[in-house]
Amino acid sequence: xxxxxxxxxxxxxxxxxxxGALAGFAALAVAEAVAGGTRPQAGPVVAVGGAAIxxxxxxxxxxxxxxxxxxxxxxxxxGILAVLALFALALGIVALRFRRTGAAGVLLFGxxxxxxATGRPDSTGITDALPSVxxxxxxxVVLYVLVGRLRPRGSAAEAVAPPGAxxxxxxxxxxxxxxxxxxxxxxxxxxxxxxxxxxxxxxSRRNLVLPxxxxxxxxxxxxxxxxxxxxxxxxxxxxxxYRVDTALVVPKVDATTWRLRIHGQGVRHPLTLTFDxxxxxELVERDITLTCVSNEVGGPYVGNARWIGVRLxxxxxxxxxxxxxEGGPADQLVARSVDGMTIGSPVxxxxxxxxxxxxxxxxGEPLPFAHGFPVRMVVPGLYGFVSACKWxxxxxxxxxDAYDPYWVKRGxxxxxxxxxxxxxxxxxxxxxxxxxxxxxxxxxxAQHRGIDRVEVRVDDGPWQEARLAAEDTRDTWRQWSFxxxxxxxxHTLTVRATDRTGAVQTDKRTKTIPDGVxxxxxxxxxxx
Length: 528
What we know:
This protein is α+β, with helices and mostly antiparallel strands. It has helices at residues 3-6, 13-37, 44-55, 58-68, 72-97, 99-118, 130-148, 155-160, 169-197, 199-206, 275-279, 312-318, 347-350, and strands at 259-264, 271-274, 284-291, 302-311, 332-337, 342-346, 357-362, 365-366, 376-378, 392-398, 421-426, 436-445, 451-458, 463-465, 467-468, 478-486, 489-499, 522-527.
């Protein structure tokens, strides 16, 4: 037999690649079906994606958020699927000549998924490896069978003839069709099982009626919302509220089985609370603006909502916790989420009298799942990565020296009060307004300090004071407007804010890492 005879027939390479793709499809479908019946977060795509997020440098994560926004997780999952598809196609081609090697490559995929699943912070143990292992075994069998149909029939013939000599066309078509149909069925089963696993959580949210808060928020002042087209709504709708986190699958937690444990240093009376325990306490309602540390100058990751919850400081005091200023041994509160996220907050800030909440409601309804149902933390004046733990399940009192939470391990600051910032909402960058009076407007924020003044500068001219809208509270953003007498030509509009401590928003630009950006927002427009 010549060397050319030993090489796979080129005409069969597309079919071999198709075999690899079908094997990969089968592996993923079966894995997701098993994950749906056990724990959706243990599926290989989610597990590998989570591991990738954990190991991605902070600067790259920040770039992804800046360019893809809240769709960053979708792009990550699509990227993983694309890589897996290429891997599967290559394995199919390899298997045409080296059948067992190709099948072993699929099994290697299972090992990677299993290690990723069991190594996640929220892993429940070795059972998290089952989806990836089961999927890999099925995928390896499918590839082995399909490639076998591209080889001569019978073991003796297969041993002496090259791939493609007398291959089983009918057998390949039947096997490939069966694999495709079976994989599609497994995928649908997995989706159904995953949905069933969250039905109790969905029902618990649907059936929840939040009690009337004992401490109501005052009515939003009439002048807080400017009647200027293009300015952000004073209250951000739940559907429009930014979401930045690492969860590839939004946890769906059943409020009827949810528990919160409070323990650690200085906790004389550890607590384990149910959701009903929180509902029986005095609920408070507050308007609070949240800001993500990944928000660029002029960025969209800031929003204002009316929250309902329980004062966190009251729960800590009942547990015997004292802030460091009163001799308490713990200076850090570490909140843990059901998805394994850890977020550290200064105990002093949480207990200094501000409205730090364990929030149950958002804008008059139970928290949406994407924003932390059944319970999340909300702390005015602190960036989310050091305060806003969603899907919270555990609070441990410790010290900053003893423990580094998730983001601190990745180069972010241990403490991060929100910086004084402002944004121009209208006109938009590169807009072409008509000459004459043009209303420049936007928002400014300095949570827990409050906004005292906003100024606008046109090109290199003097700073001119803008008109501030009515203030709701010092924990909310504040709208502003400036009637600009626009003249023809290109112009640069810049805004700066001054908070109630007298600190003026700096013009020095810094990156989001390690504790949030600084700098002044500006837009370039051309006046016609």
